[in-house]
């Protein structure tokens, strides 16, 4: 709104200067442009100081713009009709382009059907008198200025009123499609139950880490005796356990570290820029945090961990297989422990 008001103010200042420099001075041309310029300057100041007044300022600007365009249209049309030898094409100020701008502002700042009603009212009070006059004065209508007025007040103004809502509708549809696309991407990238990253995104991040020449490690964790939790307390409690585990792990991981739900009660964490000792320490912190979770009525929640560093010649399968073997060793030794892959 501030941008549009500034443009309108600039247009009013230019119109004022043009009319003052013109060889023939007409009273209305010397009054309306500076008056509307002063009003728009005041609205710009008001908008910068009171942004919450935007709607009211927009309405004042539109009403003032409509009156500023309607006054010369009626005055000079009546003058040309009643005064022999006076031609409308010679006396009407160059406001036809401003009328199109006025319609565009209406369609932008006024919502829904009201915009069409006000556009029709504006066309009736501003454009119609000029068009009726030209139809009854064919010699003026077919002059260069007459055809320009005929196009601006006729087809061009109608196109502005029709095409702008179409454009607005297309823009709204594009925004909705973009929102839907983001929602679908979120569904693909986020596990809906736990909020952790999906396996699809986890695999993508792991492939990216495999392609980088930088140290990184993988932590696989699996909840101990999770089937017994589901069987004893029911799946809703099991879901709460999974949510608590995912939330607790995310709180302990840095921003460049990610955790993905790998399937069922299994999670995978990718830790970049770390060595083998640091990787085991991260896994131990996660193990301790899970063991300290309180999810009523479950008495204890624990998890087994397998960790491995990414080797230079690793593939997605080889690094996951090493982490899985370490995880199974942790399970075989009673769970609630961290096991590193052999050689680390």
From TrEMBL:
CDD domains in UniProt: GGDEF
Keywords: Membrane, Transmembrane, Transmembrane helix
EC number(s) stated in the UniProt entry for this protein: 2.7.7.65
SUPFAM superfamilies: Nucleotide cyclase
Keyword tRNA processing: no
Keyword Membrane among record annotations: yes
One protein family per Pfam: GGDEF
Residue span, GGDEF domain: 214-343
InterPro entries xrefs: Diguanylate_Cyclase (IPR050469), GGDEF_dom (IPR000160), Nucleotide_cyclase (IPR029787), Rev_trsase/Diguanyl_cyclase (IPR043128)
Enzyme class: transferase
Transmembrane residue ranges: 31-48, 60-79, 91-109, 116-136, 148-166
Catalytic activity, as annotated: 2 GTP = 3',3'-c-di-GMP + 2 diphosphate
Gene3D superfamilies: 3.30.70.270
Domain of life: Bacteria
PANTHER family: DIGUANYLATE CYCLASE DGCM-RELATED, REGULATORY COMPONENTS OF SENSORY TRANSDUCTION SYSTEM
Protein name: diguanylate cyclase
